[in-house]
Amino acid sequence: MKDFKHFLGSVFRYRWYIAGNMAFNLLYVLTSFFSITLIAPFVSVMFGMIPPVESLPGFHFNVDTLLQYAYYYTGVIKQTYGVMPALVMIALAFVGMSILSNAFRYGAMYCLAAIRSGIVRDLRVHFYTHMMSLPLSYFSEQKKGDLLARVNIDMGEVETAVVKSLQSAFMEPLYVIVFVIGLFAINPGLSLVVLLAFPVILYVMGKIGVYLKRKSEKTQMMLGQIVSMIEEAINGLRVIKSFNLIDWSHRNFSDYNKQYVRALNGVHRRRDLSGPLTEILLVVVTMAVLGFGGLWVLDGRMSADMFVLYILLLIRIISPAKHTVNAYYNIQKGRAALKRIYSVINEPAGEDSKPGALSKRSFDREIVFEDVSFSYADSDTPALEHVNLRMEKGKTYAFVGASGAGKTTMVDLLCRFYEPDSGRITIDGVDIADLKREDLRELIGTVSQFPFVWHDTVANNIRFGKENVSDQEVEEAARKANAHEFISRMPEGYGSLLGDNGMTVSGGQRQRITIARAILKNAPVLVLDEATSALDTESEVAVQQALSKLMENRTSIVVAHRLSTIRHADNIVVFEKGRVVEQGTHDQLMSLNGHYARYVALQSL
Question: Is 393:366 a contact under the CB 8 Å cutoff?
Fold first, then answer.
């Protein structure tokens, strides 16, 4: 309920459009009502059921006065011009009222268009912006396909089920209210019979609505799982094919898809049941009105023209009442999608700088880890325990150790992708937790084991969001990264598209493009996280040459499994089960004949 209220709060931003929509809807309903009231004087005067009104009554804003005016002018037209001209003029009045009412209806839809598109746009931007501010720990616990389903399918459900129902939610209840007021003005007794049906309709709506909300939430979760299965199958297609598991994959997907379809059919059938039930109830009410009203006409307690008008007004209520019920059910169904969207939006952001954070644009002396400990949320084993390390400006530091020893965790903590459980990390004596997060990351350039490139041109991938960077600067960065030669051979040069995840280039070429990106960033601290571990020997040589140029005059932190790449580091730090067990130069560590020497011997073998 809180999420839905928050959503309605975002709708209120468009209050002027809402006010315009409601005003046009009110005018549409009133003109529709007035046009129908012309039926009564038309029937009575044309067929001589009652004598025409001889003089105009005093004006009062009620149905009786309106009918007296209509009786008077209809009689004048008949007496002056005859029956046929009067029929034509009445028909023209109907057409005129219809044009006017539909013009008002278009005005309401015109205002609603801005509301519909604006609400979905704002919600999608809010979702994306907040998702980008969430900590990495959140994404390690979520399926990427499910998140994609929320921003795509659930957002579409909100637009279809909620936003498109706003017109019905704004107009149809107003239509019903105005026409019910008209019914009471004509005959309160018969209107009480109509009113008795509303509690039954509301009860049925409530029961079906609760079911729909609960089951719709389940089906949306199942649909998110289906998207996740498709996304995982695409990513793992090579493995699935190599293990001959296409039939197994198809069977799993097909079985789960059948479960989803069964659940979805239940939702559709319950929702579709609401329309016929509502119509049956209204038809029963109409038949009761016909019975009671017919008796009253025969007894002389109600005129025939008023009875005809009453029936017409009652019939016109049926369609808006059905639309109101459908809008209610659609909104209930959409609330399930809103709940899934807001479950992400309501997650605490982990990327916001704390109030009063300091700005720091330079790295002058050293980076220090002071008694730092850290554990991942889903693990009972500490990733780092009481780590103390000092790294001076301008030197190269290498982190080595077995997988899971804590090397990459050190880098992630330095970049503030995670926060330490205890201890602190300082840059030039300032705790990085006190710095603006964006300033901290501007000081650090990263080249990772899995280079990421956009489905964009080579030049834009090297720029990577930096504005006011000339083509000459891009080319210079590519030359330093040993990438200019292969880029020049591409069909469109620096304007060539790299494809999805850079599939049009090799792994080594993709890595050199990311190195050029890091060169262009020109950060004083450089992090190389297994930057050559996934490359063949020839590509490794080209990338290593590019990295050597990148590391010049920078403080470099190298996470490496291939020990040959870090022999000349100023300080090699050896990690074992989250602790620093050795550190020193290559020669110093070899003389210790400890962990590092064992790693070197194993790689030599």
Answer: yes
